[in-house]
């Protein structure tokens, strides 16, 4: 999706076909005692996930690289790049 205008001209919104990475990502914290922090790579806004909490993560800035970084809350290191799996269910008759 592209958005243009709005200052001295009308808004113009252009919708494009779906590409991988457009939809939210479900993140589940299955850790018993660890808080996880998540953020889009190279952006400062952080989401915090409590133990056994789930989150549908949407990109803070969809125009930037859509890569998710995660880390343990108390760890001050850079973090780890999230790797995603796509699950495809097939009905076999």
Quick gist of this model?
The protein is an all-beta fold and 93 residues long.
Could you explain the architecture of this structure?
By secondary structure, this protein is mostly beta strands. It has one domain. It is built from no helices and eight strands. A hairpin with a 6-residue loop joins strand 4 and strand 5. The termini are far apart. The model has no long low-confidence stretch (mean pLDDT 80).
Secondary-structure blueprint:
Blueprint: E1 2-4, E2 12-14, E3 25-28, E4 36-40, E5 47-49, E6 54-57, E7 68-72, E8 80-81
> Strand fraction band?
25-35%
User: What would the average pLDDT be, to the nearest integer?
Assistant: 80
With strands numbered from the N-terminus, the spatial order across the biggest sheet is 5-4-7-8
Q: What gap, in angstroms, lies between the N and C termini? A: 38 Å
Number of helices: 0
Instruction: Please state the structural category.
Output: mainly beta
Task: Give the total of domains.
Answer: 1
Q: What is the H-and-E element order?
A: EEEEEEEE
The count of β-strands is 8
Shape: extended
Radius of gyration: 17 Å
Share of helical residues: under 10%
Low-confidence segments, given as residue ranges, are none
Features:
8 strands; mainly beta; extended; two-stranded antiparallel sheet; 93 residues
